[in-house]
Amino acid sequence: MKLYYSPTSPYVRKVMVLLHETGQLKDVALEQIDGTTPVSPDATLKTMNPLAKVPALERPDGPTLFDSRVICAYLDARAGNKLYPTGSRRWETLTLEAAADGILDAALLMTYEGRLRPEDKRWPEWVDGQWSKIAAVCDALDTQWMSHLSGPLDMGQVAVGCALGYVDFRHDARGWRKGNEALADWFAEFDSRASMQATAPPAV
């Protein structure tokens, strides 16, 4: 298998953490894609994923998979269903993963607004609106989800860890930890995992 990736993509990081945690790193070759953006997509990547987004997982026995949630579910099934539990906890895990991806979607739009949109066309109120989504999810995690986050490792925790890591990476000045002390303490411990340390984005 071959994973098309960017080392700064938080969606790729989810996949990489899963590969570390499930012992599948040796089964996947990495193909780095540099510089693809919504306004300038990489041509090679587009042949693998018509949306021209990373991650994309090329397989020898079927079509290329794309979207981090699809890839993570596929790789976890391949490893024996280690990070997507059964029973009622499964639905909590999937909801947490969706909430974390919502953080990422909003944070990435904020990043694109500052990096790709011409300065005279930027819309601060729209950026603040994206941040309000992140803040609301962090509040919900801190007040409603700590028992799950503190439980056995699953993909919901991985997704939340990668999402908060990306907010630190690109929007640290916004200070998501303020008022979310339980979540901040959880993240400090989770971020020390070997899989998280090995997949931390490079400073750029």
TrEMBL record:
One of its GO terms (cellular component) is cytoplasm. One of its GO terms (molecular function) is transferase activity. InterPro entries: Glutathione-S-Trfase_C_sf, Glutathione_S-Trfase_N, GST_Omega/HSP26, Thioredoxin-like_sf. Keywords: Transferase. It holds the Pfam family GST_N_3. Residues 1-83 form the GST N-terminal domain. Gene3D superfamilies: 1.20.1050.10, Glutaredoxin. PROSITE patterns: GST_NTER. Signal peptide: none annotated. The keyword Transferase applies. This is Glutathione S-transferase. It comes from Sulfitobacter sabulilitoris.
